Amino acid sequence: MTEVNERRERARADRAAFPDGGSLSGAQVLDAALALIDREGMDALSMRKLADSLGVYPATIYWHVGNKNQLIAKVCQRVFDSIELAEVGDVPWTAWIRQLATSARTVMGRHPSLAAGFTSTIQVSASSLTLADRLMQVLEGAGFRGERLVMVYNTVLGTIFGWISAEFATELANSDSDWTAEYAAALNEASDEELPAIRRNLLLVANRVFMLRWTSGRTTPMEGSFDFMVETMIAGLERMLERDDRPL
Amino acid sequence: MTEVNERRERARADRAAFPDGGSLSGAQVLDAALALIDREGMDALSMRKLADSLGVYPATIYWHVGNKNQLIAKVCQRVFDSIELAEVGDVPWTAWIRQLATSARTVMGRHPSLAAGFTSTIQVSASSLTLADRLMQVLEGAGFRGERLVMVYNTVLGTIFGWISAEFATELANSDSDWTAEYAAALNEASDEELPAIRRNLLLVANRVFMLRWTSGRTTPMEGSFDFMVETMIAGLERMLERDDRPL
DNA sequence: ACCTGAACACCGTTCAAGT
DNA sequence: ACCTGAACACCGTTCAAGT
Fold this sequence. Notes:
- The structure is a homodimer of 248-residue chains.
- By secondary structure, the first copy, chain A, is mainly α.
- Chain A has 2 domains: 3-79, Homeodomain-like (Arc Repressor Mutant, subunit A, Orthogonal Bundle); 84-171 and 216-243, Tetracycline Repressor, domain 2 (Orthogonal Bundle), CATH 1.10.357.
- Chain A is 65% helix and 0% strand.
- The radius of gyration of chain A is 23 Å and the shape is flat.
- At the A-B interface, α5, α8, α9, α10 and α11 of A face α5, α8, α9, α10 and α11 of B.
- Chain A binds a DNA duplex (19 and 19 nucleotides) through α4.
């Protein structure tokens, strides 16, 4: 308890060194929250710890950012804003989507704890509306219209952001001790009769594919598969476009 | 407080009517947890509420299922187990994947609150290993081998499960009152210069596409787009297979 | 084996009061 | 406008003790 007070005092001193002489800004709160999330994970984020790290009482956080849900939404926003889009018209639609995909994954990969729940947290904002509009422009440019445009748009965003959140998700059960050992054991017990394909490809897939890995994308990225997925989706869309060209 | 005791008493009475005379089984705990999640949402799940709903003290839950993370993992497992796979070899690989996709979405759609965080929670189990193995068999049968097999496998699972969790995710900010109004306002303020594509397609996309909807997949499903996404992925994989057939 | 009863440390949120 | 200090209701988890 005095320990907490000491930490608070130190943080307060740091804060006093700021240009404006110690008054907290909303941006500082968001930065501190993101730092805390990156350092200790999403589950460890609490309003009280965050307040402590800023040398301030919990209620102060509420004054700046509203409640915890809003705090998280704003942090996600901040990260989301740094996704870089190509100018519409500068590149072919396929290249534009590739750029969106790789930038989104790079940005979210810097904050894996956030990425896991990211899809739940997308909030309306200038930059999310901008992304939506640009993507729609690009897809219109490619020739998609009406109901088809809706489906293609959803396909692009759903696969890209859905994948990213799946890749960086942590396994809950991981919090337990010998989870890894248990997993490896289960995999090795895979018999030729029951799990022949896993057995055949064990070295190839162990800890490298969904449902057969015991570390998340944080420690074992799946960049190759992600890129392949994006290429597959684009190839699929091209084929859809060809089919669409024919008279129905 | 007496209110809680009353509820506990009633639940205990219900429990006493069970075949074995009132002793709690692990399965009963999981069923009650899933019911609570479906009824009040993931955030409302607490060990104490769950205990109350079973007419039991919190510590009893710990005896049956370990801690909260393990509880959630087991509940996910239970839902996951009801995904139905086609027999390998009974249908072409494309149909097999289609079946996996629609069954997975149907099953998860029955428990949207769970679906949102589902990717974080997949645990090793008999049925998840089985799914992994069958999918690998199917993809081998289609002609994918080695590193290519890894990427295709990840593409299939990453897009299907990633999408589903994105579709059924709730918007956090939704907990606030006039979120919808705010959103609609932001969309209507979309000017022709800043957001031309959204403006052009407003009626088409409003509340129907990712990042431009204010209700989640629970109330506004995106089945059409999901099916299209699956077809796109399959078409893309077919093209990848053709490319692969040519000498590199 | 299964459950009680109570405790511990922690949490989100609110609110009057200070400056 | 910005922050303190304290309070309220709730939470996950543990543990000795009961049967």
